[in-house]
Amino acid sequence: MIVLRTMEARDIEAVEALILQLAQDLGESFSIGAGQSAAHFQAMEQSPDIYQNVVACIDTVVVGFLSVVRYRSFFHHKGTALVNELVVAKEYRGMHIGSALLEHAADCALTDGFDEIEVGVMQENIRAISFYRRHGFSLEYLLLGREFCT
């Protein structure tokens, strides 16, 4: 049975592994510095109205992760929930864990009165695009990004 719950500090290592797996799936060169995830998690915990981090567990094993950023704008008066990260461990894919996480995010946004839920997906990630389309997402606008080299 899949259990969804709010991420806790004890989940950081498992979530790091999932994020590294996501980066690998996307062909990204990515690393997480010692303590970096813990620092991000602690900062996010200070603003629970903005950041929603959820893990999916089977028994006591974290097998999925969802991060949602919730924000307000003048155009969408009630606000937008943005799926920032969604990943399921490879060996647990096809078990509807991603669907459960996504539906949880949508249900929370709707319950909290938000206008919409969005997701940004890399153009090359055809599997993710297909997944979101199956869950009622459509191409609404083009999200452009600019990364800063540090």
What are the main properties of this structure?
5-stranded mixed β-sheet; 150 residues; single chain; alpha+beta
> How far is it from the N-terminal to the C-terminal residue, by CA?
42 Å
What average pLDDT do the residues reach? 92
Tally of strands: 5
List low-confidence stretches.
none
Radius of gyration: 15 Å
Structural account:
The chain has 150 residues and is an alpha+beta fold. 32% of the residues lie in helices and 25% in strands. The protein contains four helices and five strands. It has helices at residues 12-25, 36-45, 97-111, 126-134; strands at residues 2-6, 51-58, 61-71, 80-88, 116-119. Strands 1-2-3-4-5 form a five-stranded mixed β-sheet. The longest helix is centred in the last third of the chain and has 15 residues, at 97-111. The chain is globular and about 40 Å long. It starts with a strand and ends in a 16-residue tail after the last helix. The model has no long low-confidence stretch (mean pLDDT 92).
Produce the secondary structure layout.
Elements: E1 2-6, H1 12-25, H2 36-45, E2 51-58, E3 61-71, E4 80-88, H3 97-111, E5 116-119, H4 126-134
Parallel strand pairs: 4-5
Antiparallel strand pairs: 1-2, 2-3, 3-4
Please outline what is shown here.
The protein is α+β, with helices and mostly antiparallel strands. It contains four helices and five strands. β2 (51-58) and β3 form a beta hairpin.
